[in-house]
Protein 1
Amino acid sequence: MSAFASDNYAGVHPDVLAAIGAADALGHVVAYGADPVTARAVERVREHLGADAHVFFVWGGTAANILCLESLAPLAHQAIICAESAHIYVDEGGAPERLLSRKLLPVATPDGKLTPALAATRAIRFGDEHAVQPAVISITQSTELGTRYSPEEIRALADFAHDHGMLLHLDGARIMNAAAAQGISLRAATRDLGIDALSLGATKNGALGAEAVVLWEDRFAEGFAWRRKSAMQLASKHRYVAAQVDALLTDGLWERNASHSNAMARRLADAVRDIPGIKVTQDVQSNAVFALLPETVREALYADDFVFYVWDEHTGEVRWMCSWDTTEADVDAFAAAVDRHSAAS
Amino acid sequence: MSAFASDNYAGVHPDVLAAIGAADALGHVVAYGADPVTARAVERVREHLGADAHVFFVWGGTAANILCLESLAPLAHQAIICAESAHIYVDEGGAPERLLSRKLLPVATPDGKLTPALAATRAIRFGDEHAVQPAVISITQSTELGTRYSPEEIRALADFAHDHGMLLHLDGARIMNAAAAQGISLRAATRDLGIDALSLGATKNGALGAEAVVLWEDRFAEGFAWRRKSAMQLASKHRYVAAQVDALLTDGLWERNASHSNAMARRLADAVRDIPGIKVTQDVQSNAVFALLPETVREALYADDFVFYVWDEHTGEVRWMCSWDTTEADVDAFAAAVDRHSAAS
Amino acid sequence: MSAFASDNYAGVHPDVLAAIGAADALGHVVAYGADPVTARAVERVREHLGADAHVFFVWGGTAANILCLESLAPLAHQAIICAESAHIYVDEGGAPERLLSRKLLPVATPDGKLTPALAATRAIRFGDEHAVQPAVISITQSTELGTRYSPEEIRALADFAHDHGMLLHLDGARIMNAAAAQGISLRAATRDLGIDALSLGATKNGALGAEAVVLWEDRFAEGFAWRRKSAMQLASKHRYVAAQVDALLTDGLWERNASHSNAMARRLADAVRDIPGIKVTQDVQSNAVFALLPETVREALYADDFVFYVWDEHTGEVRWMCSWDTTEADVDAFAAAVDRHSAAS
Amino acid sequence: MSAFASDNYAGVHPDVLAAIGAADALGHVVAYGADPVTARAVERVREHLGADAHVFFVWGGTAANILCLESLAPLAHQAIICAESAHIYVDEGGAPERLLSRKLLPVATPDGKLTPALAATRAIRFGDEHAVQPAVISITQSTELGTRYSPEEIRALADFAHDHGMLLHLDGARIMNAAAAQGISLRAATRDLGIDALSLGATKNGALGAEAVVLWEDRFAEGFAWRRKSAMQLASKHRYVAAQVDALLTDGLWERNASHSNAMARRLADAVRDIPGIKVTQDVQSNAVFALLPETVREALYADDFVFYVWDEHTGEVRWMCSWDTTEADVDAFAAAVDRHSAAS
């Protein structure tokens, strides 16, 4: 299958599978995270994100997001400002409302990116008991639209949040793509910019199913063990989750995987950008290409067994995602098909 | 580490790791469960549990339990009758209350097993708007105390539940141990006895982290996809979860693993039963041994680096669990140590 | 105090107080609603809204809304489409999310009124497990902006909802104002137009604290007793709540109260409409006047001890509410002050 | 109706009705509690319970309990220890689980009263992430069984709670009965004994529908406004709720009402205690009498149109409640009937 549908269609990087095997070779180890594999993985995350980081592993990205948000906003009347396109707002099946019983305050954006001015439209009614109280701004880096905040833009949001008594969460399902594209460390891309809680994504970068919650203040981490357990995200054979993150953060694997998928997206965008009838609609700043193309071309590509999703049913805009295992040949074959079908239409 | 602490301390069976590798070798496949590995795993579960079974895979056992219970009792005022020792009541960090906002109605039991008479003490106040309404009886097989319901005992509970407008859930974290011990099929141990929803445990039987929710009526399964998603249990790279269950259910691996751990528990019980000062406190009917022993002996075993848990802080009763990878040598060395320290005390 | 701040600032209509006294004169009666006062009040509501109506009394309007919504959408993944200005979305302190763990899907409107076309922007992704599933459209009549749906507009929304497998809820905190303005019965204003669940407001119409939930299908009412009890809205001395609604629905009191407050709003709008610097911003179709006025005028009115609220902090738009006890003299004095201060500014 | 079924069957004390009328006579006042009636009522409660008391009014007793518990235990993994007979455990339709998503840890008691030793059986597993964490002990005074804690007994529980990092809540639906019986002030019966949060009951003492939440530390009150609003317990015409509590706390009305109902219960117990076949089963220490009597006698009383409830379906134990408006004639007539039917049986 040649797929540009999602970076979740990709398999597991061989080094991650090897790390799972190495964790297995230890035989019996303590369950629920009190094992040496987890201890080493926590240290590895701290090497990247700071010695003061509280690190917790979970299975999935929705869980990482929700547990970050609950850690920053523990009470039901606290609300979360986010982009209307945020994964937590549109693609988690209502998990934030179900698990947290909390209101998300969406803001329309042109490119998936919040700004202080946009967030300000929702940062209102502080002290009014009839209204939920904005407590957290949540942003996604790189965004669901493949765009990227600059470090300065994140810093401005952090300052805005903190100046208004709020905190800043980063949904980092693809933070590795963003940091690699910017050529900065994971820490420089997050904590150093004022991020209070990070969902550190690993699955899309080549893991089997592993994410980390990273919190930089003791007060946010207090009680986290129970939040994770009661949210059904404490793995019993915990070493196998921790080992995956460890592997990606070892010897720069995360950066190689991210840079590769970013490069494949740029290669694809460059190859199709000038094809008549094709319009690349968002800046290609990570591993996604958003484009408009004639419906006939789209259907012809589907008929060729290429797999990808329509992002916006009204406009027909599509999303093409690249992943750590996308090859240049994959990209070139797909771009050639786009060219061929466009010429024919 | 020679551990009798938990069957979660064990590693992953080689055949399960191989199945993960085989799933990986497929390259790109559709995410979120619409892939051929999942399709095959669903069929495999149906071979064991009936063609009418609705099958959903999740990461953890707490999630399997909670999603089963929500499927049977979708409304907040519906309550669940369970043993006071049930995992859902004491060991899931409040997840049932948090996720379901539902009341559990605990019943004290001598051996972890409910009976119709015991359940009847909680099956009261039907129609009274001031009281929650019992809607489900939840039992564990084999129980948290290592005991086992006979098929007749489960059938009697199913009849009692159904006669009172309730449904029967089985927490089958160790159903494989029970079925293997009884020499019956998984279906004969569950659906054929009137079970309405089953948490099919795989992790303790040799998986990495995989469980299945099995529901036998369409109405219970309706909307399940959203329940799982909003409970943060829909794996993106879903094939790797499904492959684990498939592997255990192929060529009788589940039964070999379960029979082995059961045999190790019997071997251990037989070896220590007659040691002066040791009292085996529950019938050894699966892969657990519960025992009372002098505190000095316990401490001496800990000093030898044997790992196991005190089950009851008040009485000092301990639990020794065997797993698929416990060896006869492990058992014999441990029993010898018990004997040696008991003689010395 | 001469207040145009809220119809909740008004007192209780003397006939309602008398009804409370009459209920009290019965001495001991059964608690929790199994009393003759409640029975009579239920019948009274049915006279107005149909013999097939299920009627339940609660203390407050937020509760009436939430219990209606839960009755129509009992599962957590079901979502509610509403106007961005809806009371349930902005003024209930997050109660819908807290109590129901459900997502509201807001739609921007110019006048507080949904249309099928507007609702259609949120009626999407049916069957997609990653997205909440729209199950209810909730509208407010008269709206939070003082505007009013025509019967045809409501019927069109009901048809749209039902055609898409959804249901229609009406937040009727001021349904009496709307029905009185339209000169139609409460039933003609609700059920006859396709409404599935109605929050029947009484408090703003002259009650002390009483609202009713009205449901027209047995399946929506099933289990309602527990929903109300567990939502903490089952009054123990229930007769005193029921008596209030009964009084308003007896001998046309509801209509007299509503017509009066509507007339006072029209009188006010007519008196200020042509004052230079004043702009009435919404059609005055019930008991509210929305207006823009110079900040100096607003401050001068505050200095005169007139009480009213700024509705929109960005534009300075204010809301002037009339109630059953607003007098012509109140209106004239206020309008004169607006005129006087406008001339001076 | 001559009823001994519940103190909720009683009407409203005339002084309370008069206070409602007086509040009404003020005409327009600010809604939602920022009115002079509420301000005076808050001060009145503080006169009784301490100048440092945070006071919030709500409609119902279930709400008062739940908002107290949420104030003391704001996080989902915090659990509440209570008697198995506690109203919050058995008679609130699952509201604590629904609203708080929190686990209650019930303890069997002979007389409805917890002790440190009994609470200790549930005050376990601190720090264990697999178990909910006991954070609050909740007691009822006077208890659901009509018994009463001595001041020393409450103090011992407060010390036990505080020594173990927990807090003490008192469900005071009938605290006025207890304090009156003990001849001490409301403060001496609560805060002076170490109570951290009090549900101050007024409805059973002669109000129409009003209770107060009383919290003695700033940190417990922080955010309470949103807890109340989102729990749907913020009355819009708030003055009418506050006025009721004010009336009962003025000029000793609370004590006269409570003492009277207590006296009627003693009169009833004394009159029936020695009737052959009748057994008073609990100490009569407030306004309730619990008794065993032959089923034939019970049915004969029902045939006479006396109304009361069977408390325990298994034993046939009944509860006879007295209220502020129970007369000596009511009691004597009822006791005579018990005597007559007992003699006949």
Note: Chain B has 14 helices and eleven strands.
Protein 2
Amino acid sequence: MIQTDICIIGAGPVGLFAVFEAGLLKMRCHLIDVLPQVGGQLSEIYPHKPIYDIPGYPTIKAQELIDNQMLQIAPFKPTFSLGERVEHLEKQEDGSYLVTGSDGTAIHCQVVVIAGGLGCFEPRKPDVFNLSLFEKAHVHYMVKDPEKFRDKTIVIAGGGDSALDWTVFLANVAKQVTLVHRSDSFRGAPDSAEKVYELAQQGKINLLLSHNLMALEGTSALQQIRLINKAKEEVFAPADHFIPLYGLSPKLGPIAEWGLTIDKNAIEVNTFDYSTNIERIYAIGDINTYPGKLKLILSGYHEAALMCQSAFKYVYPEQKLSFKYTTVNGVNAF
Amino acid sequence: MIQTDICIIGAGPVGLFAVFEAGLLKMRCHLIDVLPQVGGQLSEIYPHKPIYDIPGYPTIKAQELIDNQMLQIAPFKPTFSLGERVEHLEKQEDGSYLVTGSDGTAIHCQVVVIAGGLGCFEPRKPDVFNLSLFEKAHVHYMVKDPEKFRDKTIVIAGGGDSALDWTVFLANVAKQVTLVHRSDSFRGAPDSAEKVYELAQQGKINLLLSHNLMALEGTSALQQIRLINKAKEEVFAPADHFIPLYGLSPKLGPIAEWGLTIDKNAIEVNTFDYSTNIERIYAIGDINTYPGKLKLILSGYHEAALMCQSAFKYVYPEQKLSFKYTTVNGVNAF
């Protein structure tokens, strides 16, 4: 049995920074993440991609940010259960929690922090015949590495920002890009839609509005996608790869059964401490929502700091919290 | 007349980061700061001090953080009026503002953002005879450079965290440290108070509780401080330097007359966009307050991001704001 003060579900940038803020207040953390390494989507999906909006870094590669955060929290000696999903949560008589993972790891803690980010969601799948047949090798619910599509023939489906942005981006990478959308107007940003219309006019992409997906077709590899237009005519779009970008839906797994208030795809929290409707359970980062919420890493950092000030009362019920600046006191580990 | 979208009062780390977030939304910024250089208290008070709680930087010197932030906002070409105080604010018929500085600079903008931080406050001065006589050379309301006090005899006054922390720190630097407090218990953190008691017991500092300051004394330089104890007896503490640490009081200057809601030393704001009670005026960073507020640079960064999302409607009233990630789109300047 692991004894800790705070059990953090999710070891992405926000979960990792919570370790730092907790450490300043002498609270120990154990992190559990379904991925085999720390860093969340930064390490899993775009480790080599530059990020531009981390304050103080004109640009930093995603993995480099995670590496730096690991150095930053090293003095506080966090412990990890990686490659393990949270299975059970059991409230103890004294108010503390027992968290159990899918490999049987048992973690006893005073406070649970959900920092599951995108990992708590799964892509919305299109309703198209033969999807499962080609899903493994030829269907991509997110663009992890654009180079995979260099000189390929691809079909993107969707009408939001992801679909528009990747259409614009991949127009310069792929051999041929077809964008399919069931409606005749886009939900995404007007200037992105503008760019897509321009590319279509210039013949640089193939734009199919008011078309519905019918079937993925091919003998062994994917070859084409069968569509149906407004006039109920069949249309065929050649495709080596199919990229449906229909957004995400929650995949909270057992967390969904804890009784947390969920608003659309996110856990509702208070803005003063990012606590959920259940005492001692907090949610920070992309998994939470509150008025004005922006899914930015830098917002998750702020949420982690305020959350720790609030969680302190459960870890040290007898102590008065006093706030200190690291510039005066430095970082005093355990 | 300078025409800009957002006029930012204060060019510290939070004001500077607001330029970045505004720039992502194609809003231009002009910054005005009473200090002769950017960076706020980081550059003015502790440029060489390491900061430990900037996410992604295990440690970074204050000036280095500011230098990096200047690089980060360079693509957005902010303009500056440095060494100038805001004097007037005039609402125009169309809702926009005309800001005038002490040197006569006129700035026309759609939105005003107060990011004045500590610069909007001044130290509380003790009521002690001869203060003004020694104020210039021998009285210090903040410790800018501890090395100034190496091998000197100093008297610190106060009962909060600043007084306690600097007493502990300077005990190893100065020749002799006397801590004077009018009460017999401290307001600061219990563990800091504990350290001070220990140092006093070990004879490493001179602790004078329940003593009141009476006068600073000396012929040309400061030589001693006259105090009075509980029994109304005179006590003399030798002193080359006097460091009264009684906290700060607001020094909002003309801003105080704008009708903003002030709570103690800070401007009250909403947590969803950090707007004040006056439309088109926002307050971010150490100058604002809201439930759960922590005076951390990283919180100011978050506040800057949410503020810009809200300010957009005044700069582009006809446009729908669409939120984009820099990882997908990069940083597109003007």
Note: Chain A touches chain B through 62 residues (CB under 8 Å).
